[in-house]
Amino acid sequence: MFVIEYDFNIKEEELSQLSLDEFEGEYGGILYGQLLIQVNEQRFGSCDPDAPDPIRDFFEAPIIAWLGLLCEVVIMKQDHPYVALNSMDEVFLWFEFLDIDDDVLHVALLLVDREYTSNRYLVTEQINQISQCLWKEEIKKQELIDEILLKTEKLVNYLETVNPVIINSRSMQGLLKKYDIVKSVI
């Protein structure tokens, strides 16, 4: 099982009133919020839509960027048996996606050595400088693909309802291009 949950920090009313220039300028084209990635019973992050505002504001996962990077994982998996994704918030935490066979992959959360450096969020060279494997789970590749597509579609549908001009932002256009590529590879 692969599950993505997210909930934005910005209130729907505020989001609905943003112009494209405000979203790209003041917000940097970023929608921050809570993010949970669950692989079987293992969890990374958290998402509680009922959390009070002070707690909600503490979480600053860039949701559009996360969905874009997860789309890139799927795209890169077409040519690479190994892809690792940096967790963005924790420089030493990496998700590892490793093919077991054509239909199944291992997903692991790794704590890498402090000596390990990469200026990229995605790598296809296996990380060998691992301090600890926090967890490792086996999932079907299709579960990963389906969930990324579903949650990207959910985001697009939400924005089309609340404020369709945001769909025209550079960040959303970039995500939509990756989404289209993922749809074409399945």
SSE blueprint and pairings:
Blueprint: E1 2-8, H1 12-16, H2 20-25, E2 32-39, E3 42-46, H3 53-56, E4 61-62, H4 63-77, E5 82-86, E6 93-99, E7 104-112, E8 122-123, E9 130-140, H5 141-162, H6 170-185
Antiparallel strand pairs: 1-2, 2-3, 2-4, 5-6, 5-8, 6-7, 7-9
Helix pairs in contact: 4-5, 4-6, 5-6
How would you characterize the overall build of this protein?
α4 packs antiparallel against α5. The strands form two sheets. A five-stranded antiparallel sheet has the order 8-5-6-7-9. Strands 1, 2, 3 and 4 form a four-stranded antiparallel sheet that branches. The chain has one domain. It is of the alpha+beta class and 186 residues long. The chain has helices at residues 12-16, 20-25, 53-56, 63-77, 141-162, 170-185, and strands at residues 2-8, 32-39, 42-46, 61-62, 82-86, 93-99, 104-112, 122-123, 130-140. The mean pLDDT is 95. Helix content is 37%, strand content 30%. It is globular, with a radius of gyration of 17 Å. The two termini are 18 Å apart.
In short:
The protein has six helices and nine strands, in the order βααββαβαβββββαα. By secondary structure, the chain is an alpha+beta fold. The strands form two sheets. It has a five-stranded antiparallel β-sheet with strand order 8-5-6-7-9. Strands 1, 2, 3 and 4 form a four-stranded antiparallel β-sheet that branches.
